[in-house]
Design goal:
The protein is an alpha+beta fold. The chain folds into two domains: 118 residues, no CATH class; 175 residues, Immunoglobulins (Immunoglobulin-like, Sandwich). Helix content is 30%, strand content 28%. The protein has seven helices and 18 strands. The strands form four sheets. Strands 11, 13, 14, 16, 17 and 18 form a six-stranded mixed beta sheet that branches. A five-stranded antiparallel beta sheet has the order 4-1-6-7-10, with no helix packed on it. Strands 3-2-5-8-9 form a five-stranded antiparallel beta sheet, with no helix packed on it. The radius of gyration is 22 Å and the shape is elongated. It starts with 10 loop residues before the first helix and ends with a helix.
Length: 311
């Protein structure tokens, strides 16, 4: 996959940043392709059967039964090991600790994977911990609206999105000078639009909103929206299949192509399916920030901190 712009941060640097704020945990390992009797738990929580790939954080434990096996990616050492049957390991900042049983001889792991993970979690830090004292309910009808400056759509992922400023405001989506009127939406913090009718290439775009008095509010500059080729769309679909159920790699790949709405959707679906994985919420917080969905960003950051406080 393409390298994320600015993603060449080391895992150690990102972990240091997270530790300094004491908020966003860095994934230290990942269980891949568990088979048979494999279980996982956080700290002293109850054991749960593990049948899917899962990122592991400090304090997580994994054990296998007589028929249980799995691959373990250790990001700190950039190595891959096999969890053997009847084994029990614990994850910490120092690496993998064997409580019982054993692991296979380490094999080299691609450094690119660690870089992507480090970059994603390091960026999310500033919108969960740095702003934690500034989380206030946003004004319901603040007369300000921004859209992401540069983004893409494709045949399979044609949606664009922006914040619903006010339930009584209507919108004017202007693409290449053509106005598309969108009525007020009484519910929800986000407006989406299917732009699949656009041709391949670069297009100018802006979103205006109209208040109850009919006053139109326009951004200072237009944004750039690119419709990717069908060939690129096919590559994206192939990459999704190769990533399996890994939300982080899939979301990062979408961002590489500028498909920020598709990246957001991947993380939303993952957290809807696995709501207990609070450690993954900062990734969606970061996604909301990129799309300038500030109401959603701050609401999710508050939820992240609330769950942390209860643990």
């Amino acid at each position: 996959m393409k390298m994320l712009a600015g993603a060449l941060l080391s895992l150690a640097l990102a972990s240091a940043v997270a530790s300094a704020y004491g908020e966003v945990l860095q994934p230290l390992a990942q269980i891949v392709s568990p088979q048979g009797e494999v279980e996982h738990r956080k700290a002293d929580k109850p054991w749960r059967a593990l049948t899917r790939n899962k990122y592991l954080f400090a304090g997580h434990e994994v054990k296998s039964g007589p028929s249980g096996v799995a691959s373990v990616y250790d990001f700190a050492s950039a190595s891959s090991v096999e969890l053997q049957a009847n084994s029990w390991i614990k994850v910490s900042a120092d690496g993998l600790t064997i409580i019982s049983g054993g692991l296979s001889k380490p094999q080299p792991l691609s450094a690119g994977l660690s870089n992507v993970i480090a970059s994603k979690f390091a960026r999310s830090e500033q919108y969960t911990s740095v702003r934690r004292g500034a989380f206030k309910e946003q004004q319901a009808c603040k007369k300000s609206l921004g859209t992401i400056r540069n983004s893409s759509i494709s045949k399979s992922f044609p949606n664009i999105a922006w914040q619903n400023v006010c339930p009584t405001f209507s919108y004017r989506l202007v693409i290449n000078g053509q106005v598309i009127d969108i009525g007020a939406q009484a519910e929800g913090d986000m407006i989406t639009y299917d732009a699949s009718a656009l041709s391949e290439g670069l297009h100018s775009m802006r979103v205006e909103f109209v208040d109850e008095q009919g006053q139109v509010f326009r951004p200072r500059k237009d944004s750039q929206l690119r419709r990717l080729s069908d060939a690129d769309d096919a590559k994206i679909i192939a990459s999704i299949k190769s990533f399996g159920d890994d939300p982080l790699l899939t979301a990062a790949m979408f961002e590489d192509y500028g498909l920020f709405v598709a990246s957001m959707r991947v993380l939303q679906r993952y957290l809807d399916k696995y709501p207990d994985e609070n450690e993954m919420r900062p990734l969606l917080v970061d996604s909301y920030h990129k799309l300038k969905l500030y109401k959603k960003r701050d609401a999710l950051a508050r939820r992240y901190h609330s769950v942390n406080a209860q643990q």
